[in-house]
Amino acid sequence: MSLPIAPRVLLCLGLLAAAACGSLPEDEPAPTPYDGDGPDAPALSSDFGCVADYRRVGGLYLKNVLGLTEQAVAVAESDGDWHFPVGTIIQGQPNEAMLKRGPGFSPETGDWEYITLDNDGTRTVITARGTTDVQGVGQTCAACHAPAGDQWDYICQDDHGCEPIPASPVLFETLRSSDARCAQ
Ligand code: HEC
C-alpha cells in the first residue's frame, strides 16, 4: 500500500527522510570492522525495520539482535549507569540508529556504531555507518551524543545533556506513524 499524500509530503519535508522523495541506493556500506575478541554484532539492513515493532521504553525504541532484548529493556528502565548489551539497536525515529558493537570496538563512542537508514516502505537500506565520522544535522552524531557520557551510555533522550535536535517531537511521531513498513 502506498502512503497517503499528506504523510509522504511530510516525509519529503523531513530533513532526515530523503528516501520518501527518491529511489533508494543499491549499495550499502560494509559494517565497520571489529578488531576485538569479544562477542560482536555487525548487523545488516535486514536487522532494522518498523520501530513500532521494537520494545518501547519512554522515548526509546530498542531491540537486541543477539536475543538480549529483555536485558536491554532492563537497562533502559533503570535510573542511570546505563550500559547496553552488545547487539542492542536503539532508535528514536526510523532513519537513525545506534548499534552496540563488541567491547573495545570504539572507546570514543562507548562502542556504539552510528547508522543512518532509508526505506521505501518495503526495503530498508543503510546509507552510512561508522563511529566519530558519521554526519548528523549540523555536526557528527558522536559529537552531539557525547555530553550524555558514559553514565547514560551516550543515549541523549531529552534530559541527558545533549543539545536538542532541530526537529520537534511531533515530526518524529509523524515519521514513526507514517512508516509504511509497519503496516505489513
Ligand atoms: C544536534 C545534536 C544531535 C545530532 C547531530 C544527532 N543526534 Fe541523535 N539525538 C539527539 C537528541 C537530543 C536526542 C534525543 C531526542 C529526544 O528523544 O528528545 C537524540 C536521539 C537519538 C537516538 C535515540 C536514543 C537517544 O539517544 O535518545 C538515536 C538512536 C540517535 N539520536 C542517533 C543519531 C544518529 C545516528 C545521528 C547521526 C546521523 C544523530 N543521532 C545525530 C541529538 C543529536
Task: Please explain how this structure is put together.
By secondary structure, the chain is an alpha+beta fold. It has one domain. The protein is built from four helices and six strands; from the N terminus they run αββαββββαα. The protein has a six-stranded antiparallel β-sheet with strand order 1-2-3-4-5-6, covered by helices on one side.
Which terms summarize this structure?
184 residues; alpha+beta; six-stranded antiparallel β-sheet; 6 strands; disordered N terminus; binds heme C
**How confident is the prediction overall: mean pLDDT?**
88
Q: Spans of 5+ residues with little confidence (pLDDT < 50)?
A: 1-20
Radius of gyration, Cα only, in angstroms? 16 Å
Q: Tell me the domain tally.
A: 1
Strand content: 15-25%
The side-by-side strand order for the widest beta sheet comes to 1-2-3-4-5-6
Question: What would you call the shape?
Answer: globular
- Number of extended strands: 6
| Helix content percent band | 10-25%
End-to-end distance: 9 Å
Number of alpha- plus pi-helical segments = 4
Largest sheet, if any? 6 strands, antiparallel
Q: How is the quaternary structure best described?
A: single chain
